[in-house]
Every structure is written in C-alpha cells, then in structure tokens.
Amino acid sequence: MTHDDDRALVAEILAGDRAALARLVAREHSWLVRLARAVVRDKAVADEVVQDGWVAVIRSLGSFEGRSSLRTWMATIVLNRAKTAAVRGARTIAVAHLGSDVIEDEDSVDRSRFGGVGFWAKPPEPWENSSPEALLHRREVLARVDATLGELPDAQRAVLTLRDLEGWSSEEVCNALGVSESNQRVLLHRARAKVRTALEELLGPESR
Amino acid sequence: MITCREATELHTAAEEGALTGAKKVFYDLHMKICPGCKCYRAQLHTTVDVLKGLPPEEPPADLVSLLASELDEKKS
Ligand SMILES: [Zn+2]
C-alpha cells in the first residue's frame, strides 16, 4: 500500500463516495479493534475507543496529507483515544511508552528444559494432528490462544496482533507503534514463544 | 557454536533477516544438525500460522452509515 493509494482513497471518500468509505472500513477495522483491545483491555471500552476513533478519523480526514501511511496516521489517533480512555478507567497503560519500554531479559523457553551447557534436556516433541487448519477448528485451541493473548504485556500483544493476526510488515508496525526495528523483533519473538508454550501445554506429550 | 538455548532466542531474528556474520553461520549450522531446535522452530511456525488463521474482527453493521452521516454533517 503506497501513500499515493491512501491519498486517492481519502480523496474518493471526501468526495462522498460511500463505496470507498466501506472499503476503508473493511480494510482497517479489524486491526483497530485488536489494537485497542491490546492496550485498553476492557472490551466494551475498547469498542467505544474504536468507534470514537473512527469518527475522529473521518472528521479529520481532510487533514491527512499522506506524509505517513493512512495506517500510521490512524494508529496515532486511536492510540491517543485509548490513552485517554485508560486514564479515565484508572488503568495505567503502556501506550505512551510502547516504544520506550525497557526490554528486559526474558527466556523464550523455560531454563529447566535445558541442561547445564544449554542444550536440550527436555526437547520439544512433535505435536499430533497439528496442521494449523486442524488446530483452528479446535475450540480449546482457540480459547487457549485467546487467553494467552490476554496475558501478554501490552507492547508484546500490540506487536503480535499487528504482525501475525493482521499480517502487517515490520516497517508498518514500527511506524504505527513507534518502536524500533530491533525492539519490535524482540517483542514479536517473545509473544510468539509464549503462545507456542501455551499450545505445547495443550498439545505436547505431558498433556496426553 | 551456539547452544539450543541461544538458538531458541534467534528464530524470529533469523526469519526477519536480522542475523549477520558469525552469528548467522552458527545459527544456520545449528539448525542443520539439531532435531530439538528444528522441532521448536516448526512449532513456532505452526503457532504463527494459527495466529494468522484467526478470523478478522468484523465491523458493526451500522458503522459505515454512521461514518457517512458524519461526513455529510461536516460538509453541510
Ligand atoms: Zn538445538
């Protein structure tokens, strides 16, 4: 998606093209909801943030200049709303410093799984019937993934959501969240590792 | 050489093309010979595929008309 495409779409919407507006909503709604939920947590409040955010986006559409991508611009608007909502709800959130969070040491795999020199003592074992398609049809898998996403720290959840659930590029995520390329990578890896561990608890040998 | 514990921290960086020099050489070599790490990496891929397969959030049915009326108001 180039900024020119974004500018063209915005021009169509401002000219009153309702189909263009519907296209924008279809294209961008899902990540707005997921990002808001990642940083606000309360589902009802997050949905309110998204609705208010959409109205704010539409109202200020005339001032979109295409210097950043539409997504980066929209993320700024919605994250600001999320911050305000979080302050109202007395939840201190990391939105303000998604990008400046200190990256602390954290293991992707519990140390007890490795021997003294760092090679596998308890290596992972292949999961049975574990094609992604099959897993996506199992209710307990979806529930576990959902619960794990809910337990991730804000910044990890925001990055994982945009990269993997929404399929954004790392550049898009860095711009929208204001995180550096290397921090983005660490946050993404830790989040993925936690979801893997959760799936292992469900699918690994010890669950059988 | 790198250990399995080190390798588990590098899979995403490797995939994003962020490993260079000796680190990349050692990582690639480790991944050729270590079944445990191959299995771990395959499970990470499965995890990502599951995440990518989750259905998107659908907009509420009345959102487009709400926003359209917002636009109309702004114009008038
Ligand atoms: Zn290994």
What does this structure look like?
The complex is a heterodimer of chains A (208) and B (76). Chain A is mainly α and 208 residues long. Chain A folds into 2 domains: 3-92, Rna Polymerase Sigma Factor, Chain: A (Orthogonal Bundle); 99-207, Arc Repressor Mutant, subunit A, CATH 1.10.10. Chain A has helices at residues 3-14, 18-40, 43-59, 70-88, 132-136, 139-151, 154-165, 170-177, 181-203. In chain A, helix 1 (3-14) crosses helix 2 (18-40) and helix 2 (18-40) runs antiparallel to helix 3. The longest helix of chain A has 23 residues, at 18-40. The model of chain A has no long low-confidence stretch (mean pLDDT 89). By secondary structure, chain B is mostly helical. Chain B has one domain. Helix content of chain B is 72%, strand content 0%. Chain B has helices spanning 4-8, 11-15, 21-33, 35-53, 63-75. Chain B is elongated. The structure holds zinc ion (ZN). Zinc ion is lined by residues 4, 7, 30, 34, 36-37 of chain B.
Question: In a few lines, what is going on in this structure?
Answer:
The complex is a heterodimer of chains A (208) and B (76). With 208 residues, chain A is mainly α.
The helical percent of chain B reads over 70%
Shape of chain A: elongated
Radius of gyration of chain B: 23 Å
Indicate how many domains the architecture of chain A comprises: 2
Number of strands of chain B: 0
Q: Tell me about the largest β-sheet of chain A.
A: none
SSE topology sketch:
The complex is a heterodimer of chains A (208) and B (76).
Chain A: H1 3-14, H2 18-40, H3 43-59, H4 70-88, H5 132-136, H6 139-151, H7 154-165, H8 170-177, H9 181-203
Helix pairs in contact in A: 1-2, 2-3, 2-4, 2-7, 3-4, 4-8, 6-9, 7-9
Chain B: H1 4-8, H2 11-15, H3 21-33, H4 35-53, H5 63-75
The structure holds zinc ion (ZN).
Protein traits:
heterodimer, A: 208 residues, Rna Polymerase Sigma Factor, Chain: A, Arc Repressor Mutant, subunit A, 2 domains, 9 helices, 63% helix, elongated, B: 76 residues, binds zinc ion
